[in-house]
Amino acid sequence: MILQAHLHSLCLLMLYLATGYGQEGKFSGPLKPMTFSIYEGQEPSQIIFQFKANPPAVTFELTGETDNIFKIEREGLLYYTKALDRETRSTHNLQVAALDANGAIVEGPVPITIEVKDVNDNRPTFLQSKYEGSVRQNSRPGKPFLYVNATDLDDPATPNGQLSYQIVIQLPMINNVMYFQINNKTGGISLTREGMFRGALVGLSQSEKGSWVCPFQRCFLFPSPLLLIGSQELNPAKNPSYNLVISVKDMGGQSENSFSDTTSVDIIVTENIWKAPEPVEMVENSTDPHPIKITQVRWNDPGAQYSLVDKEKLPRFPFSIDQEGDIYVTQPLDREEKDAYVFYAVAKDEYGKPLSYPLEIHVKVQDINDNPPTCPSPVTVFEVQENERLGNSIGTLTAHDSDEENTANSLLNYRIVEQTPKLPMDGLFLIQTYAGMLQLAKQSLKKQDTPQYNLTIEVSDKDFKTLCFVQINVIDINDQIPIFEKSDYGNLTLAEDTNVGSTILTIQATDADEPFTGSSKILYHVIKGDSEGRLGVDTDPHTNTGYVIIKKPLDFETAAISNIVFKAENPEPLVFGVTYNASSFAKFTLFVTDVNEAPEFSQYVFQAKVSEDVAIGTKVGNVTAKDPEGLDISYSLRGDTRGWLKIDHVTGEIFSVAPLDREAGSPYRVQVVATEVGGSSLSSVSQFHLILTDVNDNPPRLAKDYMDLYFCHPLSAPGSLIFEATDDDQHLFRGPHFTFSIASESLQNDWQVSKINGTHARLSTRHTDFEEKEYVVSIRINDGGRPPLESTVSLTVTFCSCGEDGCFRPAGHQPGIPTVGMAVGILLTTLLVIGIILAVVFIRMKTDKGKDNVESAQASEVKPLRS
Hints:
Immunoglobulin-like, mainly beta, 3 helices, elongated, single chain, five-stranded mixed beta sheet, calcium ion binding, 7 domains, Cadherin_CS, metal-binding
């Protein structure tokens, strides 16, 4: 045995020398605390290090967690005899001491730490061979309804133990669309947007009041001016169950040498009771006690918080909802004020996050006959010529009823109650019962009988009656045509920039019929030479003078010369046999002179959309303009405050010249200037709006500063607190979907973090044995985006004594405020200085007194004798 031991030592020594271990400082050195890292599974009998000791040490001793694997030779060679297994023990804590010839410790012991480094020698395994779960149709995309979990014995801090989940198979696969998705890190299974709806994204238009207007009958709103329309695809009536095959791989799923495992997931699709109720009809002006329940909504699970959203932002919103989902009308409705209401019912969780899309509630207000007919004016005036034929229409009386149109409540009946005077007879007029059109019933009227008739007409619906008054004036027959004072008004020259609304010409015609009647009133029309409608004529009702005005801008480029023809005519028809002739027509020639005009853009606002991560130099849009005179145009930008863009001054193409950032502002608005090249260099301005679509380029962060997190010390039970994360990226259709984990392995024995929803998490203590001090807990937050971004944040949690006023934190030393020791030192120093001063004073006084005595003695010795 002794010989065998010597041979083993000799072999180790030869290996030691052959591999260079004898070099001082490389694989050998003095006895001191050291840490070594060794991969698990390596061949045994590997030399780790040689310790060298100073006399009188002659040998070494190894103790601690050797597991009968680690050995040390007399010469100080530390080695191991068996392959290590990290899963059995990840760290071996050893002690090495140097002994003298008598076996007494003369140096050490010193700690030696052996860290066993992981290799990927374990495959991941699911905790269950089959999972079962259920999901309701129309559930919110991205919200997990089931988790699958796998474990891997390898080190989770290395890729060996980092697992990635993936859906391999979905059965049935309808239209080659995946209805389910899995979070590759957490194993959370949720619906895709396709699983919730199959349809198209469409934009919302914006009303004049600033609210979003849906162009379709059924719209599901999200926190964006976008909506998703379509039919529910995940339908339990069509496919009540689905089967998924889920795989899990280690190495983060990024290596061809990854180990993997699979499991089966059976999913039952249940009916979603979160459905919009049928439209409600509510009778207006109800006298029943309010509020009145009119309908209800229900979330699939208890605990939802309900609210109503006024889609139209009305000044009076007469509806409410309780926490049972019952919807009430809170006051009587008036159909004449508003005949229908559309609003949304929203269900949220305890943190205020929407559980699903809002439901659209429709309430129609039923009409009752509560409005009488109203006359169009106090007196309605019509004119009729003397020679009017029997049956001709005189005019139409149009009364109004505010009740619902096309119902019996607003159906009006007309009846003539009285005619005055009854000359030459009564019943000269009739009125159509439902249309209100007045007709001449018996004979032609004569002005010599009476120049005016007054009719009293009863207008009624099924419950109300109203009297309206009509005045019919008998006028002379229209047997005279308008005649222009001159047929040719000559030439007129105007610049093309003459202001719209300017009066450019006065024309005049006369009519010999009875003044101030429809027979003599003259209306002027441009019948030739102005196809664009740039001119118009206003008539003075007292003089029949016509004023020619500019209605639209003149344009030299399209109409430099225009031969304008006017016609003068009466609103009343001419009598039989009389027609308009050349005397009722006039003309003039309009010459338009050229004015140098600024370029004209093809659009007032140009808009383009690009991703915020486009490469510098990418074309992001273009603008077009033209010069009316055909001059070349030069383009430039104005208001590019961020220096993101440049424009090709010839083509109008716009390019990026710097990194774009949606979070800095989208849309990004700049002005584009088009300037004439040469000439007067006139310019015009248009708008360019660049809409930036989001990419995941902002890491998560805490939503606010958590400064006052504390637990009362000592803990009687494990405690927890809630925090919120956010980021600056855009989240369409759903909010953020963060995952949370403890960032440091050393903290995992004391703390754990659990996800509440996509933005909130709960930090909990694992035990109650904490000191009364501050703890800084590092938490890793991953946004799960593409690409995923991750950040580490810190929460400072204080364990402190609690009183009536909350947490008591002992004040620490503040700069400028002395401690007790400093105060004592200052006091002693002050007393010492005072003592020194007093001692100096006393010594000085004593010295001065001695001097006085000597001087007195000397004075007595020299004092002359008196005679």
